[in-house]
Amino acid sequence: MTTFVYSPSPLTPRTHPLISKTQLKNTLATTHDRFSHEMVNRLKTQCLVHLQNHSSVLGFLNFSSKPHISPHFPVPSSRESFQAIVSRVCAILSQVRWKESSELKQLSSQLKAHHVAEIVAMHKDTQSVIQFFYWISKRPFYKHNMNCFISILNRLVRDREFAPADHIRILMIKYCRNEEEIRRAVAFLDEISGKDFGFSLYSSNTLLIQLAKFEMVEAARNLYKQILNSGINPSLLTFNTLINILCKKGEVREAELILSQLFKYEFSPDVFTYTSLILGYCRNHKLDLAFGVFDRMVKEGCDPNSVTYSTIINGLCNVGRVDEALDMLEEVIEKGIEPTVYTYTLPITALCAIEREEEAIELVAGMKKRGCHPNVQTYTALISGLSRVGKLEVAIGLYHKMLKEGLVPNTVTYNALINELCVGGRFSTALKIFHWMEGHGSLANSQTYNEIIKGLCLGGDIEKAMILFEKMLKMGPFPTVVTYNTLINGYLTKGNVNNAARLLDLMKENGCQPDKWTYNELVSGFSKWGKLEYASFYFQEMVKCGLSPNLVSYTALIDAHSRDGKVDIALSLLERMEETGCSLNVESYNAVLNGLSKENRFSEAEKICDKMAEQGLLPNVITYTTLIDGLCRNGRTQFAFKIFHDMEKRKCLPNLYTYSSLIYGLCQEGKASEAEMLLNEMERKGVDPDEVTFTSLIDGFIVLGRMDHAFLLLQRMVDMGCKPNYRTYSVLLKGLQKECILLEEKVAVQHEAVYSCSPHEKDANFEIVSNLLARMSEIGCEPTLDTYSVLISGLCRKGRLNEAKQLVKDMEQRGFSPEREIYYSLLTAHCKSLEVDLALKIFNLIEAKGFQLHLSIYRALICALCKAGRVEEAQDLFANMLHKQWNTDEIVWNVLVDGLLKEGELDLCMKLLHIMESRNFSPNRLTYEILGRELSRIGKSIETEPLADKLKVLKDSN
Fold first, then answer.
1. Contact yes or no for 727/695 (Cβ under 8 A)
2. Which of 342, 309, 311 shows the shortest CA–CA distance to 328?
3. Which of 923, 859, 929 is nearest to 894 (CA)?
4. Element (H, E) at 939
5. Which pLDDT band holds residue 949 (cuts at 50, 70, 90)?
6. I need a labelling partner for 4 at 20 to 30 A (CA). Which of 89, 474, 715, 781 fits?
7. d(CA 507, CA 480)
8. Local structure of residue 818 (DSSP, 8 states)
C-alpha cells in the first residue's frame, strides 16, 4: 500500500525562515542595550492640558517608546568605530561654523540613522542639535527613522524646547509609513506629553489625517472625542477628515451626526464635506440619497467639482447604471468642468465590464480630443475588456501602444493580459509577457504567479509550475491558498496523488490554511483515482477543520463509492447530506443511480427517481443515460430502449454517452447492424460519435467475424476526424489474430498439417501489427505519425517492447521521425526490462533533440541503472540532472521517495540526498520528515541515519 504523509496539525506558527529564535532574541537584546542608557529618558508627567489621557486615542495600543534599530540599517562592525564617528561629529558640532566643515560633509556620507539618534541624544548644545537634525535630513542618501524622532523629542522636551519639539512631532507623525509605525508614534508621544507640551490643533489634525490615511477608524473616533473634550476648537479640516474616513467605510449615519456638530461650531460644509457624504452613500449603493446630498449642496450655493462628479459617476457605474453615468459625464462637460482622466476611466471600465468595448474605445477617442490622455488604469480597463470578448490581438496592440506612449504597465495591466491569454489558450504568449516582467523589474504579485502556474498545470507541465512555486517560497510573493489549490489540482489531474497529499502537508507547514476548495479538490481527486480510503480521510479532516462539506465534496465521494461497487455507503452519504442540510441536486442522485444500475438494483433506482420527482428535481440526460448504461451492461438493452424513448417523449435529448451506451449494449448482444443504425441516427441528429462509440461498434462486427466491415468503420471514423486510440487498434489486432488462427485451422484441415502465420511468436505478433497497417492502407487510411505514436505507446505499456521497436523501424522506413511521446514510452519500457544501454541511448536522443525531460524519466533510468548494478552511472546521471531547473522538494518526492526508496535502494537514496545537500539543494523540513517516515515504513530506523541529525537541526532552527 502507498504511504501518505499527513501533518499532525493544520497550522504551525513560524518565525521568519531566515532568522532563528536565538538570533532574534540576541538582536533585540543588542538593540535594547545600545539605546537604553543614552536615549531613553522617560518623562513621567501629569495628563495633557489640551489632550488629557492621550493614550486612549488609540486605546488598544501598547507600544514601548524604547528605540529599536531597524533591520534595514546595518549594525556597526564594532562599538568602538560607532562611538568614534559619533564623538567626532559631536566635536565638530561644538564649532561655531560647523555647517562649513568639510570634514562633517565627508563624514555625513557614513552617517546612518542610528548614528544620528545617538548624536542628538548626547551632544551638549540643544540649538546645534536642532540645526544638525534638519541639516542631515537634507543630505543625499540619508533618511531619518523612528528612533531619530524619539531621540530628539526626548532631548527637546527634557530641555523644554517646546516650539521646535512641536514641529518635529508633526514631522514624526507625517513620517509614519504604516499602521504599526503610527501606533508606535502615538504611544511615544503620549509618554512625553505633559501640561507644557500638549497637542495643538495643527498637530491634532495632522495625526487625524494620518489615522484616516491608514483607515484606523476607531482611533480617529477616539482622537476626535479627545479634541472636543480638551478645549481645542476644531477646524473645518477636523470635521471634514473624520466625515471622510467614516464615509469611506460606509458609516454615513455617523458622518451625518458629525455634520450636525460642524454647524454648532458655526462652520459651513464645503465641497469636500458634501463630496465625502456623496461617497458614503455611493459606497452603500444608496444613489438616491447621494443625489439628495448633491442637490442640497447646489441649493446651498456650493459648486460641485470634478471629484464630486467622478464620485457620482463611479457610484452609478458600480450599480450598473452606466448610461446615466455617461449622461452625467456629458453634463460635466457642458458645465465647463474639465473631466479628469479618472472621471473618464470609471465609465470606460464599466463599459468594458459589460462588453460594450466599442463605446469604451469611442470614449477614449473623445477624451483624447479634449486633451485628456489615457493613463495606465484606462489602458488596463480596455486591455482587460477587449481580451474578455476575444479581441486579444487588439488588446495586445493597445499594450504596445501604451509602451510607445511612455506609460509603464503596472501589475494589474500585466495580470489582466496574462489572465485573458491563459483563458484564451495562448499560454506561450502569456509566458513571454511574464518573463518580460521579470526581466524588466516589474513586480509580479501572487495573482500573476497564480495565473502562470494555472496555465502550466492546464498544459500538464506541473514540474515547471513547481519551479515557480519554489521561487515564490524563496523570493516572494508568498504562495496563497489559490497557489496551493492550483498545484494540488495539477497533481491530481495527472494522477499523482502522492504529491498532492505532500503539497497539502507543505501548505500547512508554511502556515497557509486549507479552505473548502482545497479539500474539495482532494476528495474529488482521490475519489477519481479510486483512493477511497484517502478521499474519506480528507472528507473527515475537512469536517474537523470546521469546514462544512458541500455539494461538490459529497457528490464526488458518493460517485466514487458507487463506481467502486459500495452503493450502500453511497446511499448513507446521500442520507447524511439531507441530515446536514446540504441541498441535493440531480448530480448527487445520478451518482447513486449509477451504482445501483450497475449492480442491477433497478427497483431501488426507481425509488430514487421517485424521490427526485418529489423534490421537484427533473431527471436530466445524465440521469437517463446512467440508467440506460446500467441496463445495457446487465444485458437488458430492451428495457434500456424503453427509457431511451421515454426521455425523447419528455423532450430530453440524448447525448453522445446515451448513444454510446446503447451501441455497446446492442453489440454485446450480437446486434451490431442495429447498433450501426444508431450511429447513422447520431449523425442525422448532429451528435458526433467519439472513439468509444466507434470502438464498441468495431468490436461488435469483429465478434461476428466481419473484419472487412470493421475496417470500413475505421475508415468512417478517420474520415469524421475521430482519432482511434490504442483500444481501437487492440480490438482490430484481436480480430486479425482471430482471423489468422482460423486460417491456420483451415489450412491444417486441408493439408492435414500444422500451419502458423510465422515460425516465431515475436515475428507472429509483429506480423499481425504489420497486417493491421497494410489493411489500413488498403482502405485509404494511410498510417500517420499519430497512428505509430498511439500503437508504440500502447504496446510499451502492455510490455510488448519487441513489437514496439519493430514499429519504430517501420515508421522510420516510411519517413517518419519518432516524436517525444514515443521516445518516452520506449525509454520507460527499456528501463522496466533493465535494458539500460538502450534506455541510455534513447535518453541521449531525447536530450539531443531538445525534448523536455521529466523527473519521471530520470527516476525510471536511475532506478534501472541501480538494479543493473551500475550505481556510479546512476549517481552521475543524478548529479547532471541537478544542473537543470527543478523544484528541490519534488526531486526528493519523485526520484528518491517514489523511486529509490520504493525499490528498496536505501544506500543510493542517501548518497543522492548528500549530493543534493552538497550543491545547496536542501529540501524543506517536511520533505526530510517524509523521507524519515518512508525509512520507517521499510523497516529502517531513522536514528541510525544522518537524516536524524538533519531533522534535529531543522527542528531546533524553527
1. yes
2. 309
3. 859
4. none
5. low
6. 474
7. 9
8. P
Find, among 953, 956, 952, the residue nearest to 943 by Cα: 952
| Separation of alpha carbons 893 and 884, rounded Å | 17
46 vs 331 pLDDT, higher one? 331
Instruction: Report the first-to-last Cα separation within the chain, whole angstroms.
Output: 32
Query: CB atoms < 10 A from the CB of 688, how many?
Result: 11
CA 933 to chain centre: 29
CB-based burial label for 238 (10 Å; 0-12, 13-18, 19+):
buried
The arithmetic mean of pLDDT across residues 235-264, rounded, is: 94
| Residue 24, pLDDT score | 32
Tell which phi-psi region holds residue 295, choosing left (phi > 0), alpha (psi between -120 and 50) or beta. alpha
Long-range pairs of 565-570 with CB within 8 A, sequence gap ≥ 24: 565/595, 565/598, 565/599, 566/532, 566/595, 567/592, 567/595, 567/596, 567/599, 567/601, 570/595
CB-neighbour burial class of residue 277 (10 A; exposed 0-12, middle 13-18, buried 19+): buried
Closest of 30, 34, 175 to residue 118, by C-alpha:
34
- Burial class of 296 by CB neighbour count within 10 A (0 to 12, 13 to 18, 19+): middle
C-beta separation of 417 from 386 below 8 A: no
Mean pLDDT of 628-637: 92
Residues 222-227, mean pLDDT to the nearest whole number: 91
Question: Rounded CA gap, 357 and 937, in Å?
Answer: 61
Contact of 801 with 841, CB cutoff 8 Å: no
Residues 6+ apart with CB under 8 A from 293: 274, 277, 278, 281
Mean pLDDT of 101-115: 91
- The answer on pLDDT for 454 being more than 70 is yes
> Which grid cell is 121?
541624544
For residue 411, what pLDDT is reported? 85
* Separation CA 254–CA 246 (nearest Å): 7
* pLDDT for 717 beyond 90: yes
Rounded to two decimals, the pTM is: 0.70
* DSSP H helical ranges for 650-753: 656-668, 672-684, 691-703, 707-719, 726-751
Q: How far apart are CA 273 and CA 240, in angstroms?
A: 6
- Residue 61: is its pLDDT beyond 80? no
CA–CA distance, 28 with 379 (Å, rounded to integer)? 47
Mean pLDDT, residues 310-318 taken together: 94
* Mean pLDDT score across all residues of the chain: 86
Does position 49 have pLDDT exceeding 90, yes or no?
A: no
The cell numbers describing 10, all together, are 493544520
Q: Please state, in angstroms and rounded to a whole number, the distance separating the CA atoms of residues 589 and 570.
A: 10
Please give the DSSP secondary-structure letter assigned to residue 53: T
Q: What is the pLDDT of residue 548?
A: 87
* 588 contacts: CB under 8 Å, gap ≥ 6: 551, 554, 555, 558, 574, 577
Give me the residue label for grid cell 497637542.
Answer: 199
**Residue 648's closest CA among 685, 609, 599?**
685
Beta-carbon count within 10 A of 398 CB? 23
Ramachandran sector of residue 854 (left: φ over 0; alpha: ψ -120 to 50; beta: rest): beta
Contact 220, 211 (CB under 8 A): yes
Task: Please state, in angstroms and rounded to a whole number, the distance separating the CA atoms of residues 541 and 508.
Answer: 13
> pLDDT category, 801, cuts 50, 70, 90?
very high
Specify the long-range contacts of residues 949-955, CB closer than 8 Å, at least 24 apart: 951/925, 954/925, 954/928, 955/925
Contacts of 841 (CB under 8 A, 6+ apart): none
- Find the length of the chain: 958
Average pLDDT over residues 155-182: 93
The percent helix, strand, coil of the chain (3-state, each to 5) is 70, 0, 30
| Other residues' Cβ atoms within 10 Å of the Cβ of residue 87 | 13
Predicted local distance difference test score (pLDDT) of residue 947: 58
Asked which of 23-32, 364-373, 848-857, 878-887 is least confident by mean pLDDT, the reply is 23-32
